[in-house]
Write a structure and sequence with these properties.
Radius of gyration: 36 Å
Strand content: under 5%
Largest sheet: 2 strands, antiparallel
Distance between the termini: 76 Å
Structural class: mainly alpha
Number of strands: 2
Order of helices and strands: HHHHEEH
């Protein structure tokens, strides 16, 4: 059978189903209405989810000040600037580990006594972290 020949049959089946729907008990009609409402709600939520997914996310990282070469001690500045330019990485990727390495070289030999009449002393203990996005050149700089 071809599609045009099936149209009257499909119309008759549809009419029969509509007649039966009118004769359904109230509890079945209520369930169908509730199912229709739930389906509409799910479709609405799916539409909202697609629209929300299409919007770009805001940048979660706060802005930071740029690292200036003047912040590095004179004895390290030339090396750090030259190496950063050679590797093509930000200056702070080299300066932070260099300053931490200097503190490690000093060790416990040198200390500062902030109060003259006190036993409190501070040693050159520094912790440093280089933070950047993947493939930003952190590892080569270290």
């Amino acid at each position: 059978m071809n599609a045009p020949a099936l149209r009257p049959l499909a119309a008759a089946i549809r009419a029969s189903l509509e007649d039966r729907a009118d004769n359904l008990p109230p509890s079945v009609r209520q369930r169908e209405e509730r199912a229709d409402r739930e389906l509409a709600m799910v479709q609405s939520l799916a539409t909202q989810k697609r629209q929300a997914a299409a919007q770009p996310l805001p940048d979660p990282l706060p802005g930071v000040q740029s690292f200036e070469a003047a912040m590095i001690p004179d004895s390290l500045r030339g090396w750090c600037v030259d190496a950063a330019e050679g590797l093509g990485v930000p200056l702070d990727f080299l300066a932070v580990p260099a300053i931490v390495a200097c503190a490690a070289a000093i060790g416990r030999v040198v200390a500062v006594r902030p109060k003259l009449q006190d036993r409190w002393i501070e040693r050159a203990i520094l912790w440093g972290a280089v933070i950047g996005r993947p493939s930003a050149g952190k590892s080569p700089a270290l």
